[in-house]
Amino acid sequence: MTKTLTTLAAMLASVAFAGAASACDMTLRSSDTHPDGYPTVEAVKAMAKEVEAKTDGRICIEVYPSAQLGEEKDTIEQTQLGVIDMVRASFGTFNDIVPETQLFSLPYLFRSVEHQHHVLDGPIGAEVGKAFESHDLVQLANYDSGSRSFYNSKHPIKSIADLQGMKFRVMQNDVFVDMMKALGANATPMPYGEVYSAIQTGVIDGAENNWPSYDSSGHYEVAKYYTLDQHLMVPELVAMSKMTWDKLSPEDQAVIKAAAKNSETLERKLWAEQEKKSEEKVVAAGVEVVSDIDKQPFIDAMKPVYDKYVTTAKAKDLVARIQATK
């Protein structure tokens, strides 16, 4: 049954693609793993609408949400090869492809969302974006994906001392494991779908994520203490296949770049709205939020993590420039 449904979905997608292609001189396929209605999906749809309008219908962008074309890593590879034209993925998924993106997974790299925007929208963002081209990709837009913070079922976390010995689920990522160790807690990598029951049964004490994920997963039901420490802010990225990009005229490239920049503004607005809704929902459900935390001791505790992962002169210079950005 599953195979049959998958085949049917593929056929329907193919038919939809063929129908769109017949109405446009060029139809670009764009992949997103997030569901329809998600801020990143809606932003790329808005970009598509603007591109179609400004090219008088010559260029269309078909957005395929919910991982219809594959998971992030697979769709990035397909975009590099020109099999699909555009992809929305996390900076973290590009880490093994574009080395310059690796530093954006460092804890407490950004002081705030505003600081992150200033970095991404300035010369550093342009420099990192340029690095994608040698990997057959063209960076179009940087999107928000919120900040990850700690939540648990035991007690409010107001200082590093409150983390000592606690067990937290983290993604299977060496940087995250080392971050927890530096804070005196125990990292427990596990699939996201197992977190709710693991907290409920006491296998782990908590996890870490952004407001919308904390809300939609239902984790707030079993972990009532949320500490807004914002230890990680990994942006999202929209990239185009360089093979596709090179087929476009300079005028059409300019149209797509401008539409992508406008979609960036929209996505950040939609994300902020979604965060606010999720925060209001979990607070109304009785979650205790610690928002006045002193982050400096947490930042200072990351020295061994930075010593381990920021080793080259180029990486050290980039981190210093990011931290110096106002």
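Above is the first protein from milestone M3; the second protein from the same milestone is given next.
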Amino acid sequence: MRASWSALHTSLIRKLNLRSSQVDFQAMRQADPELAAFGSIPALLEHQHARDGDPAARFAVIRALVMAAQSDQRYRSTAHLMVIVALWPGLDAVFWRLSRGFPDRRDDLPAEIVARIGEAILTLDLDRVTAVTATLLRNVERDIRRDMVATRVVGETLKSIADPVIEALVVETAESVEVQPQDLTDHLACLAQRDATLLRRVFLLGETQEEAGRALGLEPAAARKRYQRALAKLRSQQKAPPVLSHSGSPVGL
């Protein structure tokens, strides 16, 4: 069974409560004046999670922790964990936004978010980034959302056209009466890639023609024109008899 989001947080806190982590933090305090003001890891985390704290001071602490995590010092692993836990309120908001958008992937999100934020901490270019906290959280949510949307589109596209929901959409919209139980990709293979993607977004993601077109860089009028033209081509393809190759197998479908 996958660890729940709250259980994962508890596990991270438990690691930071180890004596070895406390020893590492004392070394970090000696190396960076931004951390010296905090006598313990819990004191630092309380400061970072306080709603009425000074944002500039919190950002400075996060930057110092990220620097420690990217260093070659023995305390880098502890600093890495501290950044994740210090960012937890923001990560919690990311988790719930993504879980609402992708409820079927909720069990995968805890590990995915922690893995992504962990990698982002180690690869962040501090010389080019000022808003460390916002950059880390925004990039993690953007990358996970992008990958999950892509996975959803691929998964739905590879569904059999016999799926009643997709079949109903295709039959009703394309006015087809003889849709065979084939891969949806086969039915769209006659279209240009952008037109096929436009139809997939409308059929499978429930986007309007304008929304799907905007995602593809099309003006609303151009998106509607492409949509209607793609449906017309689908209708003509489905009415036409299949073209056989020399081996007797259908081609072009």
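Note on the second protein: The first strand starts at residue 243 and ends at 244.
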